[in-house]
Every structure is written in structure tokens, then in C-alpha cells.
Batch of 2 targets.
Target 1
Amino acid sequence: MHLNVFNEVSESEAAEVLRPCIDIERWINDLVSARPFSTLEELNESAARSAQPFNQEEIAAALAHHPRIGERASGDSQEANLSRGEQSTLDLNADVSARLAVANREYEERFDRVFLIRAAGRSSEEILAECQRRLGNTDEAELAEVADQLRQIALLRLQDAVKN
């Protein structure tokens, strides 16, 4: 959607443009109420500010919409389509898929949530290495990393959702 159109649509229509970026009501409401934006840079800066910080409840709500890394998102929602696209460049041969399944299981046992990482622009090996590194995090440090990954994903998706 063009920035001018985003600025002019109803609040509910603007919220529906933002929801696939990250389904956190506060973030969506902050951006909808801050309209109009003069530039994409202004929109992106506002989005980044509003994402600092995501609290634990917001993180849990957002993670409910994310598939495990290496697993195909199900459904026809825009968010599922975005997730499939973001993971489409991963080399998911049998060996990598098996290693990702083990890494996902270890992570979920350690932190009791799905492993989340911005997949766009990363290789399968980089994702596996990051998962192994993050398994050594404290609960607090890992929560901060998850929040950062959610911010990165939201901002990347926003750049695709609203353009000049």
C-alpha cells in the first residue's frame, strides 16, 4: 500500500495492513494513531520506537503466530504467506531439517517457547548456529533477543506493506 493511501484509510483498514507485520495491539494502535506520516522514514522510526520495548505478554502473543523455524507456516493468512516467503531461501535438505528439528526441540525445552529468528537474509547454518548460541542465554537475555528478532521482523514486513 502506498504511504498516502495508508495515511488516509480508516483506522481499521490501517490496522489490517499492520497486523501481519506483528500482531501486537499496542504497536498497531500506536502507528495508526500517529498517522499521517510525511515519509516512510518517519513511519519506520515511529514503528521502531513503538517496538521499544515489547513486554513479555506482547512477545508471547506475537510468538503464537510464528511457526517453528524450518516448518512451513499453515493457512492462507497474510502472516503465514510472509513467513513462508521469509523461510523460502533456507536450504531444508533432510540433514538440515533434522538438525533444525533437534534445535527447535532443545530450545523449546529450555525456554518453553518457539525459537524465533529473523530468517530473511540468513542461511540455515547461520540459524542453527544462532540457536545453539542462544541456548546458553539466561532467560532474561533470551527474552531480550526474542524481542529484538520480533522488532526486526516487524520492521522488515512494514517496509513491504507500506511503500512510496
Note: The mean pLDDT is 90.
Target 2
Amino acid sequence: MTSALIATGLTKKYGRRTALADCTLDIPAGHVVGLVGPNGAGKSTLLLLACGLLDPTAGRIDVLGERPVSGSPRVGFVAQDTPVYAGLTVAEHLRMGAHLNPSWDAALAEQRIAQVGLDPAQKAGKLSGGQRAQLALTIAAAKRPELLLLDEPVAALDPLARRTFLQGLMELAATGMSIVMSSHLVADLERVCDHLIVLVASKVRVAGDVDDLLASHHRLAGPRRDPAGLGAGRTVVEESHTAKQSTLVVRSTAPIDDPSWQVDRLDLEDIVLAYMSGAAGSGRVLEGQR
């Protein structure tokens, strides 16, 4: 299987509000995928559709070659508030996981609990935020799912807890598990993800392998001019102008060889912010690119 998730024209509305609009995606299997965007962009909705907890209003979504079904053993899901049961101990969570999941990997669960230093006798309600996140990740991972979906799993964690959590995630990815993780923290995504999706205003603005995105996006600075003069093969993602200077973020499939431009490479956060800015998503496609 080459795709973990395929969406075609996927739309979800809550009454009159559109949470996800005409989403078309092909998420490759065996990758760690970062899902990023502002609040209300549709990230959680996409993940809930992918794990079968919501039904589409329009369009189609296939996960691991099938229509999503809630509770599928092939898909693990950790919701944004990393839900655990406050009155149950760590050990009781693991026993419950084993009871509910036929594919439960007890050895993996016990290894992870020991590795992150959780006391099996400790009640979940007494754990720190980072410890609860690790417990939720352990339960989801010990199902041995083919696809693991994580909704803002590190948003409330301190830097050390985030680093520990992400290290555990990388270890799971090394087993071949497909992982999709939403986050506001682009620096964390850059550390662990090799594929990126940017959602803005309920629509996919850009999706692709991180290396390809880094190689194809540039910041140009030079004397003020009409961006249409850049020529074919370049999409203007963001532009700003002063009386004398133009600064552009462009996605380019052709070399930028005009010596009047200063050309700088961008990091992943620069790219994400460009798509999330006021001009995001309305990138001007120059003549010849269509």
C-alpha cells in the first residue's frame, strides 16, 4: 500500500459552518506527516473524519484502502486533550487496552511505560501533563495500528516533556508505522516529520515532502516590480512591497537566475507562515504555470 489516507473533495459542515472544504489529499504510507494551520483551520475535523468519528458532508475519504470505521484496530487515535481515566492506575489502563484490542502488544506497552518512567500503580489523575500524554501514546501505539493519528499531542507540554514525547514518536516511526500529527509547533514538526500539510481557512494550501518544499520555496528581495515579471514556473505565495523594494515568497519549479533578486532559502516555519499569512492560499500563478 502506497497511501495511508486519500481524500477527494472532502467536505465537513457543522450546520452553516464549513470546517473542511473540498479537501483533496494523498498522504503516503510509512511517513511521519505534520498537519499544521491556525485554530479553526480544520485539522481536528480531518483527523476525526480519518478515524471514523465523523462522517463527511460531501466527498470521500479512504484510510488504509477502506472507508474509516470508528474503533478500527488498524488506526490509533490520541485526541487533543490526551484523554485518560483519572481514577484508573497506569497498570489498569494497560489491562483495559489489552481487553479492548485483540492486537495488543503487551511487551511494547510495558517497555514504553518503563522507558518513560511511569509508575504502574500511579493513578492517571496524579500524573503530569507530559506523563498523561505518554500514557495515551502508549495505549494508542500498543494497539499496533498501521496508522497513528495525533491531535495536538504536545501543545500543553513543557520543552523537556515535548522532546521526550517526540523521541518516542520517532521510535514508533522507525517500525514503519504511518503517523499523522497536528501541531502549532512547527519547530517540533520539522524535527520529526518528512511530509507536511498546511490547512488554512478549512482548505489545503500546500502538501508535500518536507525536502521538496524546502528546495522549491524561496524568499526574493529586490527593486520594486510587478511579480508577474518573474516568468513561468513560479507561484507567488506571499508578497509585500515598499516604495522601492519588493519582497516575495515564491514556490518555484524553475531556477531563479535574475541577478537583481537576492534569493534566500526558507526554513519550514517560514514556509508555513507564508501560507498562513493574509495572502495565504491566493498565491498568484504566473502565466505558463497552469
Note: DSSP finds eight helices and 14 strands in the chain.
